[in-house]
Design brief:
This protein is an alpha+beta fold and 303 residues long. It has one domain. The chain contains ten helices and five strands, in the order E-E-E-E-H-H-H-H-H-H-H-H-H-H-E. It has a five-stranded mixed β-sheet with strand order 1-2-3-4-5. The longest helix has 28 residues.
């Protein structure tokens, strides 16, 4: 937590780091010409708004929607800042890319079940095996993609994000030497969600019957919302009871997974994370303590 008890989170983006708070999200990117950019967008997450989104279980769907929305905007903006303005994608390419993504996701959702149905297993065991196979596919994909140069850089920014948040939460000033003292893994990392999805899937998939391909796709899509609801409640319990044995049992696999998704960052990458953090602090806490740090980057105005 910050000095004002604001919980900060974030993610790595192309060439930089995104930091999020209950007041909005900030972005810092170092482009290919070594120019630093910063951006802030005021936005109250669905889970912080009054009404149905604060209710148990329902807030899990809100958290998933928030993550997808901010993540997509952050990646899109960082792509523009890092590579510069590019030619607008044609309608044909947009449709082609959309269909490709839908096809891949459909295969990921339905494929494991179709493979498991080839085995002579009981309904419950098929559901259990499907959960394990889907989790193995996701982890293997992350591991293999992580071998590429671009992914390595992304994972380094991921580590920088964790270290910077941990440093500020410990009431340290935003200085590189202080930040480097903290581990690249963080208990609140969304990577823990991967383990929880696998775990919750193992508990719930055995109760979903074998159907035709279309109904299997529909039931698995609905299952995503159920998993998000349950997983979010487990995450909230972990955050509030981080010293409990149960919390440590649930969080440990997430920390292990971060051994793959985080790498030790360079000083330059930590600097980018510091700027993103400073920008989010400035607008979330009305705190101008880090304005000198922000002056080293070019601000992109919202709108």
């Amino acid at each position: 937590m910050s000095k004002d008890n604001i919980a900060y989170g974030g993610q790595a983006v192309i060439g930089g780091v995104l930091i999020q708070s209950p007041k909005g999200w900030s972005l810092a990117v170092r482009d290919q010409k070594n120019q630093l950019h910063n951006y802030f967008e005021a936005r109250i997450p669905l889970t912080q708004r009054d009404g149905i989104w604060k209710q148990p279980l329902i807030r899990g769907v809100g958290a998933l929607a928030d993550s997808l929305y901010v993540g997509y905007k952050g990646i899109s903006l960082s792509d523009t800042l890092y590579y510069g303005e590019q030619e607008e994608e044609t309608l044909f390419n947009k449709i082609t890319n959309t269909l490709l993504i839908v096809t891949i996701l459909s295969l990921l959702i339905v494929g494991p079940r179709l493979l498991i149905d080839l085995l002579d297993l009981s309904q419950a065991n098929k559901g259990f095996a499907e959960g394990i196979l889907r989790g193995a596919i996701v982890i293997t994909y992350i591991y293999l993609v992580g071998k590429t140069k671009d992914a390595q850089e992304l994972f380094e920014y991921h580590g920088a994000e964790h270290m910077t948040i941990a440093s500020f939460e410990a009431d340290k000033s935003l200085q590189i030497e202080n930040i480097k003292k903290y581990p690249k893994e963080h208990i609140r990392c969304g990577t823990a969600f991967i383990f929880l999805i696998v775990f919750v899937s193992l508990l719930t998939l055995p109760f979903i019957p074998t159907l035709n391909i279309l109904l299997t796709l529909i039931t698995r899509l609905l299952h995503v919302f159920v998993v998000a609801m349950i997983s979010y409640e487990i995450l909230k319990f972990n955050f509030k009871n981080s010293d409990s044995l149960i919390s440590k049992i649930f969080s440990t696999p997430g920390i292990w997974t971060q051994k793959i998704t985080t790498k030790n960052p360079s000083d330059e990458q930590i600097e980018v994370a510091m700027i993103s953090m400073a920008n989010c602090i400035k607008y979330s806490e009305d705190n101008d303590e880090f304005d000198e740090l922000l002056s080293t980057s070019k601000e992109l105005k919202n709108g």
